[in-house]
């Protein structure tokens, strides 16, 4: 049987009319572990990583997985063992990265609201770099580092004011976004950083947004950053590394983002032509490493035909798959078994008591009650954003490695959910 690969989803194939991951039928995993169930392919993750590594071949570069995309320990282990660093945005993520075996020196800490306690802990374990997002944060980090008798390596996140042409909630590099230091203020911020005790300037950083599907905003941002490197270095402050953030999009619905290797060959053409080819380059990809390496398997609980709409009610909901409710995002929805019955058009919705609880609008599906569906492209920003709304336990997660399934997270029980609560006397 020749497998037919789903477009843009390597390692998720239709084999004999059944959707498989690395050759394992997803229906078998659903029977074994229940639904809703997140299933990830390790091979798919490593392939996405390999595309970046091809782009960086022969360069001094480091790939720091932006773990907020999917921070499950088993997923982090895959990247730690593959030699990645990590981009973290909280003290909680720091502890997760360490628990998964990350080398502290390969961790970089981003985010606009780092607390003193988070800074102190990160200094204690010896992280590689703080991506500082404001002048006020520079002052606080200097105080915390000095009090601890440490030196904090810092890079300033600069807001290059380029439009990534993505959803407004995931644009981060425009004037008016809360992120980074304005381009015009950046030189001043670097001079401040260089003068403060307890800080050592090691680089520059930017991150312009997420689910970016064209090359142009990246090339514009790179020009803006290289301009700044020139002016900061002309002021006598060397910037050994350039961290270019993450944000590369994936194929959710026929999207055609540039491939990581093609994007980086275009960027290096610019970098080399401007004479910066020998710098250390860092990147912080999240979604593009894990998004299409995962699916969420869900069971059809009820079909509910209506006058205006038909509803397909499934056992996964907005608490498991928050992206549609949050960003009107699209996930492809594929029956695990290719049916040959007639299809109807459904709104695919979950059991949560909110009209915003939908997974897909207007989908043509040939399904019956009890059938299993795969919500595709669910490896990024799904489980890491999952909640317990409606006191729904978070789903189980399985990571498939060379055709073998490993349970990396048990389904959350009501007792798990109530563990940290206390009854009144
Ligand atoms: C979220 C985030 C990333 C990763 O973004 P993706 O779109 O998932 O690649 C990288 N860097 C920072 C600072 C982030 O906040």
Descriptive overview:
28% of the residues lie in helices and 25% in strands. The strands form 3 sheets. Strands 5, 15, 16, 17, 18, 19, 20, 21 and 22 form a 9-stranded mixed sheet that branches. The chain has an 8-stranded parallel β-barrel with strand order 6-7-8-9-10-12-13-14. The chain has 12 helices and 22 strands. The chain folds into 2 domains: 4-41 and 291-418, Lyase, Ornithine Decarboxylase, Chain A, domain 1 (Beta Barrel); 110-285, TIM Barrel (Alpha-Beta Barrel), CATH 3.20.20.10. The protein has 425 residues and is α/β, with parallel strands linked by helices. The radius of gyration is 23 Å and the shape is globular. The chain binds pyridoxal-5'-phosphate (PLP). The site of pyridoxal-5'-phosphate has 17 residues, from helix 10. Its cofactor is pyridoxal 5'-phosphate.
CATH superfamily of the largest domain: Alanine racemase
Largest sheet: 9 strands, mixed
Provide mean pLDDT, rounded: 95
Number of beta-strand segments: 22
The quaternary state of the protein chains shown equals single chain
Structural class: alpha/beta
Q: Judging by the overall fold, what is the CATH architecture of the largest domain?
A: Alpha-Beta Barrel
Helical fraction equals 25-40%
| Backbone shape | globular
Cα-based radius of gyration, to the nearest Å: 23 Å
What is the number of independent domains?
2
